[in-house]
Amino acid sequence: MKKFFLHLTLIISLFTISAKAQTKISISDLKCEMLTNPEGIDVLQPRLSWKIKATINDVKQTSYQIIASSSLEKLNEGNGDLWDSGKVESDASVNVIYNGKKLKDRQDVYWNVTVFTNKGEAQSKETAHFSIGISTYADWKSTRWIGYEKMSKGDSISQYSRLSARYLRKEIDLKKKVKSAKVYIMGMGLYELYINGNKIGDQVLAPVPTDYTKNIKYNVFDVTSQLKEGKNALGTILGNGRFFTMRQDYKPYKIKTFGYPKMALQLFVEYTDGSKDVIRTDDTWKITTDGPILSNNEYDGEEYDARKEMKGWNTINFDDKKWLSAEYVQEPGGFYEGQMSANMKIKGEVKPISLTQTPKGTCILDMGQNMVGWLQLKVKGNAGDKITMKFAESLQPDGSLYIANLRDAKTTDIYTLKGEGEEVWEPRFIFHGFRFVEISGFKSKPALENFVGKVVYDDIQTTGTFDSSNPIMNQIFKNAWWGISGNYKGMPIDCPQRNERQPWLGDRTTGAYGESFLFDNQTLYAKWLDDIKNSQTIDGGIPDVAPAFWRYYGDNVTWPGTYITVADMLYQQFGDAKVVEKQYPYMKKWMDYMEENYLVDDIMTKDKYGDWCVPPELLELIRSKDPSRLTDGELISSAFYYQLLNIMKKFAIIANTQNDIKHYDELASRIKKAFNAKYFNKDKNNYANNTVTANLLPLTFGMVPEELKQKVFESLVHEVEVTKNGHVSTGVIGTQFLMRTLTNFGRGDLAFKLASNKTYPSWGYMVENGATTIWELWNGNTADPAMNSQNHVMLLGDLLIWYYENMAGIKSNPETPGFKQIVMKPDFNAGLTYVNASYESIYGTIKSDWKKDKKGLVWNITIPANTSAIVYLPTTNVSSITVNKQKLTQFSASIKTDSNNTAVTLPSGSYVLNVK
């Protein structure tokens, strides 16, 4: 097992006892934040965290004591047989490394914490628990992979692959009373696990996808309550997922395939008398492919014949004489790892809003929202009746489905009735991106009540809220939430509807940063960095898609550079230095690879995509044909590589590789000099052909000489404000930095205009034209819609970051990563009259709720316990400011003024700020 680190975040209840003040500090229930299922974690030294929640201001942790025990009984007795940290003088309440006895395979750990603050002492009222997984490959050696590596009747290997689900079962006889039991399962590509007829866990589409030749994720479940003394039945269904690839024997030079579905399982049982038993997968298991799931294919849908259901197949005493004995099969090849990121779950439901009959006798169901998941069906009919459901994002003018943008994805589910009263069905091993569904096969017109949309994405918390005085910006925010959540599928994918659904790196270069304000995506992106690392070639190359389900090793800077920018996001937003240390050698290897192969005369000569998806000059064009709109690819790659060198310098300090710092400094200096010599136009004070992106990148990255910054910015502003009439003219690359740079240079009003525009090209144009997610193209409704995914997130750029950092004023101080200190500096004059936003940081909830009118500004803020904030108020008149109805001049705080603002450093708590 790889000895890297992971957070186990806890929220603890704190009650302060103070004889003098009788101060009460309330705190929430103890729970594990980072892991939805803390069983079988793949770390030996987890990082422990807790959140202090106080109803009083200025609460600071001064020390802590952690007790970790091998049983709950010992913990309750105060016996820290695994670790008693003693009283540690520290304000660290996140990322505290477990430093007790070496943990063993399948070790259970129960722990709590006592926190000492400047306002009193408190102990957690509840306990946290985690367990270690199976640490070495050898521990699986007695467990064999089993499956059935053949096609059955109705299966096919082709461009449109079909493969029926595999059903496996085994009955076991437990001779004694069970004290505890855990099951460890690797079900490739997807599995459902049952014990005595009951599904284990509420996860769907598990486990998360990886390159199965590099690493395999196993899931762990405590099944003590599911087992009984005597006979028990184990059952699994294996779906295809990314393992039996959607397009078998089709473009094998591009699409990676892995084989037929297979499984390895270990069930560890401990009896009340202390004895133990292990049940493993072997050839005594029985298997059949003759079940009701006739086909399951992520692109094409799921086909289910209820007449073939096998009642009681996963319970004891089922007659499985016609089933085959499971075959021993070759293992997938990847290293076995405990899954640290969340599985997907059904996270919500959407009720349809209309059902329309078509001339050909079918019905069109409108969900009212472009969503990702599937449809639950309720139906009555005769045995053999077929209900067909075809999914799409939009309609044609005649009201029929528009499917051209799905390419060769069939996106169709078929349910064959068994004819036994009301039947309720939903698929198991696929998902769709859709708003509309064409329904056929009902004997009479169905009702809306026959259908429910199930929303499926990774089981991670929504951490951010945002509301403002601008309805367009609010709808864009909602569209972004739906788009981001729908594309979280154990990895961040580009789109959920057509025959792609791939984890493109370039879509998340800065997007992951913006997403982190809306979702607790830390473990998702930490896992994705491993996917990228595992896809690296021996010589250092990184693909554009990782895991490399598509072989796109084209070598460029802007897409693979996401490996570095996402690591930087994890450090900045979550204070995760360990992920930087872990990935640093591989990031350095790629940086060296690009330097050695493509740096010529200090210009990075390799670019593949340019400023992808620049808004075309005409609504009918997919790509711009106007050279004045297109930015030089080598300018982009050189500027971007320069920025990555600066990030790598920061990483070298974290990873304590001092020798690299000098190299990064010297190379960055050389590139900056060569870049300005080649691209800067002295007579015009702009770069290259004066596109917004050409000027934006050197400004943002600090490549423009200090004395020329304002002039270059004026060139940029003229392009945005005059030439492009106050509209977006950047593609995927430029849009990653556009909003923040405009605001940071004093033109937040222009950024606001871009954010609130309703005309092409803009995010608001999408909203005005019916979008409920974010489009792939700025003009996706007119530029050959067959080329447009209506659920993409790559064009968000830095918009969401701007929402939070520049409009709400919720930003982590770069000098104290992870929001230990918050920078609260909204642009109150950009164009909004109120903003109400919140963000659940690793320390707790940050709130910023401001409203201004002719009388002045009222700003309600919340700063989590054990943190502080630098709060910027838009006045230099200190006497006009009150804090909680007290004049600022009488308030105990650090106060500084500049030419425009008053900066106040506040400790934790809730405040009402007024500026008259």
UniProtKB/TrEMBL annotation:
Protein name: alpha-L-rhamnosidase
Record's signal peptide: 1-21
GO BP terms: carbohydrate metabolic process
Domain of life: Bacteria
Pfam families membership: Bac_rhamnosid, Bac_rhamnosid6H, Bac_rhamnosid_C, Bac_rhamnosid_N, Ig_Rha78A_N
Residue stretches making up the Alpha-L-rhamnosidase concanavalin-like domain: 357-457
Domain Bacterial alpha-L-rhamnosidase N-terminal: 176-346
InterPro entries recorded: 6-hairpin_glycosidase_sf (IPR008928), 6hp_glycosidase-like_sf (IPR012341), Alpha_rhamnosid (IPR016007), Bac_rhamnosid6H (IPR035396), Bac_rhamnosid_C (IPR035398), Bac_rhamnosid_N (IPR013737), Ig-like_fold (IPR013783), Rhamnosid_concanavalin (IPR008902)
PANTHER family: ALPHA-RHAMNOSIDASE (EUROFUNG), ALPHA-RHAMNOSIDASE (EUROFUNG)-RELATED
Alpha-L-rhamnosidase C-terminal domain segment(s): 809-885
Keyword Isomerase in record: no
Catalysed reaction, written as an equation: Hydrolysis of terminal non-reducing alpha-L-rhamnose residues in alpha-L-rhamnosides
Keyword Hydrolase: yes
EC number in record: 3.2.1.40
Keywords carried by this UniProt record: Hydrolase, Signal
Residue intervals of the Alpha-L-rhamnosidase six-hairpin glycosidase domain: 462-807
A single MF term (Gene Ontology): alpha-L-rhamnosidase activity
